[in-house]
Amino acid sequence: MKKGDISPVFTYIFVAIIGAIIIGFFATFGFQQLSLGNKLNSAEIAKTLDDNLNAFSISKSSDKDIEFGLDTKLLFNNLVCGTLSTEEGINLRTSKIIFSQKSFQGNTMKAWTLAFKYPFHVTNFFYLSDDRIFYYIVYDGSNQQYVEEKFFSQNSQYKIPSRFNVKKIRSNDISNQLISSLLSKYNSVKLVYFTTPNINPKDRLKIIEIDNNKVKFHNENREEVLLGDEFILGAVFSEDYNNFKCGFDEAVRRLKIISSLYIEKKEKLIAPAKGLACDYGIITANLDYFINNDPTINNFDPYKNNKNNLIINNNDLEGADDCEALF
Amino acid sequence: MIVKRSSKAQLGTIEMIMVLVIVIVIVVIGIVFYYNFFLKGIESKKSELNLQEANVLLASLSSIPELQCSFRSVTRECIDMGKAIAFKEVLVNNKAYYIDMFGSKNIKIELLYPSKQEGECNDNKYNSNEYPDNCSLWTLYNNLNIQEKAITSTPVSLYFPITKEFRVGRLIVELKI
């Protein structure tokens, strides 16, 4: 070889290194684009779901299947209450009150919305589920009629839509074999007892007990007050105590905000220039009670009585001359 | 001219490097163009989602408890203007909550018929005996201070509790394009 001639070997090495760098660059570029595309898709899905639920909330009672068109994984109230998250790390704040499992995966989500009134319309609750979980409403002889009329009768506004995997069962028919058989078909099973539970909770077996306006989550050994049938359904569809408490606290917060709204409306109505000679003193006290008190198991009766008094006092305003009811 | 073999080799190396440099420049220009189109696509998708959100908000606003008419707890399809005016006060005390709910938008109600005077409705206009004939625009939520914005609106029925009358209005949502 003459001086100055480059050995072909070095040329091949040089080409190989450059080629590897270029291929590596394009491969990294391609994977980053894929990851970015996935993130954009999941952000769009989360946003569209939020808008879907918004549109859904126009109805005071409605249920439907929400189709995503592709296998989707979503997290509800995962680490922070009031968030809708995706696997790619997109977090969306939502003011909607959602009772559901923490994690959803699939093409189709079952959704049901119900208005929460106490006694005025406060907000809509959203109950979400999928095909991976099965629910049993468990009754005994003393409350069979209540359970059937409340959750399975066509005439009831709280009838659980048939699209959800919810069935009723007598407590005597619950057995370990039945539970094992269900757990082999579903990711988790939830038993909603309107009587004393006769089986112990496990990791994939969630048990709640509804008794006298309170709910006990046996898996976490925590209790909470139930302000109405909407909350019973919330306890049914929530994965655990934390998920239920998230929706419960948000509902109470909304109740306080709407109560303060009606007090402000009253202030506007009784403005001197408006000429309304109406005594809103008692109804203001009822609304103030909601603003200044949180519902607990111990004060459930006065809380409920306050709601009933609100209805009476508001109706009385409707009938009086020169008076305008607040709601 | 006689080119030495050693220069030939150097020329060969330089040629290879120049080719590589030109290829890299072309690839970089290609990537820059691609990313420009990609970013424009993202901006366009963002605008589309914003508009979708605004349209859904517009459809659902007249049903939210803060605005919807109710008579003895039975809701009706109209906006209670007593609540709408009170809502502005409640918004001040719960600003973070409503910013989460509505985002960067303006929400207004405009009185269309019967309407006698135009102008923003405020406390002074409200306390006047001529109200609601002395103004026609209520700004419920104001969280967007830009010149270029998209406006979407829908007709609504407005209920005035003092005079117990219904009028025709327009619910307006302004958003960033």
Q: What features would you describe in this structure?
A:
- The complex is a heterodimer of chains A (327) and B (177).
- Helices cover 42% and strands 25% of the residues of chain A.
- Chain A is flat, with a radius of gyration of 28 Å.
- Chain A has helices at 8-56, 144-151, 176-185, 229-237, 241-269, 281-292, 300-319; strands at residues 61-76, 83-86, 91-93, 97-99, 103-117, 121-129, 133-139, 166-170, 188-193, 205-211, 214-217, 222-225.
- In chain A, strand 1 (61-76) and strand 2 form a beta hairpin.
- The mean pLDDT of chain A is 91.
- Chain A is of the alpha/beta class and 327 residues long.
- Chain B has helices at residues 5-61, 81-93, 95-102, 123-127, and strands at 68-71, 74-80, 105-113, 137-142, 149-160, 165-176.
- In chain B, strand 5 (149-160) and strand 6 form a beta hairpin.
- Chain B has one domain (41-176).
- Chain B is built from four helices and six strands.
- Chain B has a six-stranded mixed sheet with strand order 1-2-5-6-3-4.
- Chains A and B meet through helix 1, strand 6, helix 5 and helix 7 of A and helix 1, strand 1, helix 2 and helix 3 of B.
Spatial shape of chain B: rod-shaped
Strand content of chain B: 25-35%
* Quaternary structure annotation: heterodimer
- By secondary-structure content and strand pairing, the structural class of chain A works out as alpha/beta
Number of strands of chain B: 6
How is the main sheet of chain A built?
6 strands, mixed
The proportion of residues in beta strands of chain A is 25-35%
Number of helices of chain A: 7
Q: List the total number of helices of chain B.
A: 4
Low-confidence stretches of chain A: none
Strand order of the largest sheet of chain A: 3-2-1-5-6-4
Mean pLDDT of chain B: 89
Largest interface: A-B, 52 and 50 residues
